[in-house]
Design brief:
It is built from six helices and eleven strands. With about 250 residues, it is an alpha/beta fold. A hairpin with a 5-residue loop joins strand 8 and strand 9. It is globular, with a radius of gyration of 18 Å. The structure holds S-adenosylmethionine.
Length: about 250
């Protein structure tokens, strides 16, 4: 399962998401409370929605990510913390005793569902929990990826006491060309540059096209309101690298 060894570093490497966060915040405001985030991770988006007055349930499969989210919850101001609940669960099949006005899957996390059964299971579960006037929003990456399997160093961020951590990635397309095997490596370096610790995370991401997703959404009786190609709300075009689906239940 992904996001185990690297959970402790997730927030450190999650810069540059402001536009995406503003996008989901705004849509959450329009849809109303309560909201459900699938694959909530450390709660980066959920905390922001809670600051805006939205009650958010965050569902997450990785124990380590949940732990990070709950650590942050303990330190959060009471009026924010009382609007947040982080629960363990699988987004491809979940049952909660509640309906939501806004269900969202940011950061391309729908692509962690690698089989059609899981993807349809997720849409079915979303459908069962979406308020009749609610909105379901998620994004997928449709652009080119380097799938040669070579290691690429992505970023370096400082830690305490002069240490730094570097993040590297290797991605490879499987034979069937439907899944990208992804390995993330985090190296902790001491102040002399020596590597003192290494953490790996393996995950598989499905390769999806807009047509695949539109087909699945239609099958599960979602109506697509809009497809954007960017979080600045550019309309989707065939050359776009990303597709953001804004949908509602029929
Ligand atoms: C890219 S991270 C996104 C975290 C958070 N939503 C954000 O945007 O910062 C993807 C998250 O989805 C979680 N995830 C992957 N598959 C899942 C599943 N089947 N059910 C629930 N969570 C899942 C991972 O453990 C990870 O925390």
């Amino acid at each position: 399962m992904a996001y185990r060894g690297s959970a402790q570093f997730y927030d450190l490497f999650a810069r540059g998401k402001e536009e995406e966060q503003s996008f989901y915040r705004l849509l959450a405001q329009e849809a109303g409370s309560p909201a459900l985030e699938l694959g909530v991770g450390t709660g980066l988006f959920a905390f922001l929605l809670a600051e805006d007055g939205i009650t958010v349930v965050g569902l997450e499969q990785s124990r380590e990510m949940l732990l990070e989210a709950r650590k942050k919850l303990q330190k959060a101001p009471k009026e924010i913390a009382r609007r947040l609940l982080f629960i363990s669960g699988d987004m491809s099949n979940f049952q909660l005793e509640q309906e939501f006005r806004f269900i969202y899957i940011p950061s391309g996390s729908f692509q962690y569902l690698t089989t059609r059964k899981q993807q349809l299971g997720c849409l079915r579960s979303v459908k069962a929990h979406l308020h009749k006037e609610g909105s379901f929003v998620f994004d997928i990456w449709t652009g080119e990826s380097d799938t040669s399997g070579t290691w690429r160093r992505l970023e370096t961020v400082p830690l305490a006491k002069g240490e730094v951590v570097t993040r590297s990635i290797s991605t490879r397309l499987t034979k069937e060309k439907e899944i990208i095997d992804t390995v993330l490596r985090f190296d902790v370096h001491d102040k002399t540059g020596r590597i003192t610790d290494t953490f790996y995370d393996w995950s598989q991401l499905s390769v999806l096209t807009v047509e695949d997703v539109k087909f699945q959404l239609a099958e599960m009786q979602f109506q697509v309101e809009t497809i954007y190609s960017s979080f600045s709300r550019k309309p989707w075009s065939a050359k776009a690298q990303r597709a953001i689906f804004v949908t509602e239940s029929i």
